[in-house]
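Observation: inputs received (chain + magnesium ion).
Thought: call the complex predictor directly.
Action: predict_structure
Action Input:
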Amino acid sequence: MSMISVIVPCFNEEAGLPYFFPEIRKLANKMFANYGILFEILFIDDGSEDKTLELLRELAVEDDRVHYIAFSRNFGKEAAIYAGMQNISGDYVVLMDADLQHPPAMVEEMYKALENGDYDIAAARRVSRKGEPPIRSFFASCFYWLINRISKAEFVDGASDYRMLSYRAINAVLTMAEYNRFSKGIFGWIGFKTKWLEYENVKRVAGETKWSFWKLFLYSLEGIVAFSTVPLAIASVMGILFCLVALTWMMVIIVKTLIWGDPVAGYPTLACLLLLIGGSIQLSLGIIGQYLAKTYLETKDRPVYIVKETNKELSNEEKTN
Ligand code: UDP
Ligand code: MG
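Observation:
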């Protein structure tokens, strides 16, 4: 009998979980009744500071389909997803947020798409960004426009993390054991045939979003550095261009001096040039620094997450007690 494992990353979700859990349980019962498919609900407590973990322990006692893995601190949603994927028991995995922004009812459609082997991924895509500040939507479209031009991985605007993956696709994701995890890129990079299911943006049922505009901005930079080296090329091209301009200008000055004996002038020009060139050198160094920093973190080979407590037999060396 096949099994669907639902991975639910939770960070301070004590307000949302009491709404979320009955919904997911309803879904599990329905899927079992209709398709005879088993469910496992794997919560990842990403270092919550509220009562999330206590709630999860209670749920696990109440329902034996519930498993949880609790991190020793907040490692981020990407780490939570990775930990989940490493430790599922199912043949299919669903990634779902704990705030009911990902309508659980869509799982049935996803399952239908994957079941007969036509697709390896079924992913939800928001058709509208309704309810989001316009400035955020604007920057989001800029980001997608840019990243798709400078990266080989495909980035789909509106694509959410809400998706179902087949066993093959999960294994592909797990081979990418990088420390800097940018899921949107990873899902695009592994390829496989993806079925897109559209849905309307839903407001969070309770609690607050963990994403400020600034966090999102930094996250988009992460994505660019993780999935493209074009900025490095831009830095070099900029250097070459400046050299060419400087050479030409030098010629002009030499010729002018030889022919007309031009007196020294042009302090403003010099000041502007100095600033411009100084600025672009700084920028290039900054870009190189970004990549160097990422390389540094990757070479340290630190674990992506650390487990504090779990009620599941962990499948890898990340075992605790
Ligand atoms: N989340 C997490 N770790 C974090 C931030 C968020 O596990 O550091 C979880 C959070 O509990 C939720 C999901 O990731 O289940 C999506 O987070 P959120 O709703 O804040 O993001 P948004 O929906 O606003 O993009
Ligand atoms: Mg949310």
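Thought: report the result.
Final Answer: The beta strands are 3-10, 38-45, 66-71, 92-95, 121-126, 159-165, 194-199, 307-310. Residues 97, 99, 101, 204, 209 surround magnesium ion (ligand 2) (CB under 6 Å).
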